[in-house]
Amino acid sequence: ASAFDDVDLSDIFNAFRSGRGGEGHERASYPLRGEDYEVPVTVSLDKIYSGGETDVSLEMPEYDARGLPHRVARTFRITIPKGAADGQRMRLGGKGGPGRDGGKSGDLYIVLTIAAHPLFRVTVRDLYLDLLLAPWEAVLGTTVEIPTLGGDVELKIKPGTSSGQRLRLAGRGLPSHDGSGDLYAMVQIVTPKTVSKTEAELYEQLATLSDFKPRGHMKKGTK
After folding, report:
1. Which of 27, 134, 199, 201 is 20 to 30 A distant from 95 in Cα terms?
2. Kind of pairing, strands 108-114 and 37-43?
3. 96, exposed or middle or buried, with CB in 10 Å at 0-12, 13-18, 19+?
4. Predicted structure pTM score
5. Using CA atoms, how far apart are residues 49 and 119, in angstroms rounded to an integer?
């Protein structure tokens, strides 16, 4: 399936870059270059990561023999560069508005927008992922499986890991010509909303036995 949604340019005549007047303008007696169009297109994060070809469908204006504009559906196959950036402009030469009286066609500029991903947040080339840990996993340490755009990897959690820590997976972000970004797993310690009677008793024992004081720095009178 294409990484793009079809783009309906029903108002494309209002978005012309250089403009030549309304539909009723007189035809020029000299060649006129076609309009340049700029179209925002949403692309998936997976397609940005891997690159590759995809199709984008647009409605483009053309002129009939009387010089009146009408819309024609056109599909373009474009190549997404591996590691393309959000907001990157791609030029398709001669794919814009048609020229008049022998003039050259304009250009079509596609502006890439990275679609929101259910797991990852993007900051330039780096990716951020929320990593949820149970209290005992954070205290005792564990090994968890982390999803990345290139496949799952194992990440070792050290004993005593705290909520808010940022764990770096080097080179697991978005690729670029000068090296890949990193993936950061942002630790969030979560607790069960309900516990059994046995679990509650164990937590009570832990509270009694433990000398840990999470708010020890908050002393009375501290300014």
Report:
1. 27
2. parallel
3. buried
4. 0.74
5. 14
